[in-house]
Structures are given as C-alpha cells and as structure tokens.
Specification:
membrane, 6 helices, Glutaredoxin, 6-stranded mixed sheet, alpha/beta, about 180 residues, about 45% helix, Redoxin, Redoxin family protein
C-alpha cells in the first residue's frame, strides 16, 4: 500500500511538472515593444478605438499559430518596422484561437520571434466575423484565408489587401502612400 501511494504521488508530481512546463508561456505578458492585450473585444471598431491605436496608421496582420506561411512572414517584418520606426505607424497582430493550447503557442511564438507590436487574441466568433464581414466586406468563407494584411487610417481600412512583409517594395509603397510620403 505504501509503495502504491508513493507511485501515485510520483505520477501526480510528474503530471503537475508537465502541466507547469506546458502552460508556462501563458505567464508571458510582453515587453515595452511587445504589447499583449488580454482584453476581450466584440468588434474591430472597439479595438481601433483603444487609446494606443488613436491617430495612427495601423498595419494589421491576421495570422494563425499553425499557419506556416504566417510564421514565415515574421522573418521579414523587422526590416519593415525598422524603416518606419520614426513614423506614425503601429503593427497590430490579430490571431484567432479557441483553445488553451493555441494561446500557449501564441505567446510562445510572440516571445520566440520577438514580434514587436500589439497582439490581440481573437477569441470570439463574433469579433472574427465582424472583422471579415463588416470591415473587410468579405464572405465568411474567406475568413480562414490567412495570412491577411490590411492598413487602417483614421479607423478606416484604406488598403484592404496589403502586401505581405516578404514583398517589401510593394508593402513599403503601400505604407508610404498612406503616410503621404509619395
């Protein structure tokens, strides 16, 4: 009986250790350059009306934690950010998720890639549908076509199909146009 109790305690200890290791990324809350917003939003307008996005150009990146093309694009975005470091532009990352493992992976990727910008988990169908139907004016069938990029100015989507960061010249032309640099 004593041996069985010891075995059970050992197994429970290992399970607890594994749970802590797997869930540890959830404790990550970003840095000065990486803002992780844990607030729940119902509409995209609610997001755009936040103080940190007022009076600025917003480059929006909708990505997924298991989307290889999305993750590959992160390799190019630092160069774009550096070019516009002193300009009035913010980088907003929206990531759909439904399960706790998505949230763990989301924070882990943000930290590993040192993905400077504002990060919001799109964790309600209501918000996701609002982005696609109301703001991008696209059918819901298109909502899983990620990565998706667009540019917002004064709360209005002015470039609904922004180029990906890997198409640096085209994206920079789009951003320059919105910033009135061209």
């Amino acid at each position: 009986m004593k041996k069985l109790t010891k075995t059970i305690v050992t197994i429970l200890g290992l399970i607890l250790l594994i749970a802590i290791i797997l869930l540890f990324p959830l404790l990550y809350n970003g840095t000065n350059e990486i803002k992780i917003i844990e607030q729940r939003f119902s509409t995209f307008d609610e997001i755009l009306n936040q103080d940190y996005l007022q009076n600025t150009i917003v480059f929006v990146d909708i990505w997924g934690t298991y989307c290889s093309p999305c993750l590959k694009e992160f390799d190019y975005v630092a160069e774009i950010k550096e070019k516009y470091r002193d300009k009035n532009i913010k980088f907003l990352y929206l990531c759909p998720m439904r399960r706790i493992d998505h949230k763990v992976r989301w924070k882990k990727i943000i930290k590993e890639k040192q993905l400077a910008g504002i990060h919001i988990a799109v964790d309600t169908e209501e918000l996701f549908n609002d982005i696609w139907e109301q703001n991008l004016s696209e059918p819901l069938s298109a909502k899983y076509m990620i990565p998706r990029y667009f540019i917002v100015k004064n709360g209005i989507i002015v470039v609904p199909y922004a180029a990906p960061p890997s198409s640096k010249k085209k994206l920079c032309n789009q951003i320059d146009s919105v910033l009135n640099l061209k």
